[in-house]
């Protein structure tokens, strides 16, 4: 009988300790890696376009949030929150890296670095290449909320993108790219937060080519450069 009580006390201690450790293992924040994940097929650059360099500058973070490292959060059923941050770099750098990968995957020649650019033509360095792409982050977030039966992921992306001629130091084109999505599931997954954010970000970036405006701009700019080279 004594052994049985002793075993019961030990079991309770183990359960209590496990519960304590489980609570203690809750992350203080989630780390999400932003990446370009193709959402649709987009024509690649031809051999002529590949001769010219596109530089993608670090995006300026213009969000109203006080914590610029934050790109999302999980709101648990008890109302407590766990924030999500960019895994490898600041959001402005991460967005630029995703856009640079987008151009690279579609056959364009991209500048190796991600220069800082405040969107002022006087700040452009002609060594960056032929075309400079930069902009502002106006919205970038994935929020996960819980109710009794489901978990909902809401994602919003809004980027202002600016194209400039690096050699003539002039603004060529500017537009706003937006994407939002909602997804419900029966349980929370950090991987799902990352997937939803990347899907929305990639969808927004792919809207650069939803019409022929950017394609014509790049074609015209490279045609001028080709003519200058022949002369």
Biggest sheet descriptor:
9 strands, mixed
Please compute the radius of gyration using only Cα atoms.
24 Å
For this structure, the CATH topology is Rossmann fold
Nearest-integer average pLDDT: 87
Order of helices and strands: HEEEEEHEEEEHH
Unreliable residue stretches? 13-24
**What structural class should be given to the helix and strand makeup?**
alpha/beta
CATH superfamily: ABC-type transport auxiliary lipoprotein component
**Portion in strands:** 25-35%
N-to-C CA distance = 101 Å
**Number of DSSP-assigned strands:** 9
| Total domain modules | 1
Q: Tally the helices: what do you get?
A: 4
| Quaternary structure type | single chain
Shape: elongated
CATH class: Alpha Beta
Description:
This protein is of the alpha/beta class. The chain has a single domain, classed as Rossmann fold (3-Layer(aba) Sandwich). Helix content is 32%, strand content 31%. Strands 1, 2, 3, 4, 5, 6, 7, 8 and 9 form a nine-stranded mixed sheet that branches. β4 and β5 (81-86) form a beta hairpin. α2 crosses α3 (190-206). 28% of the residues are buried.
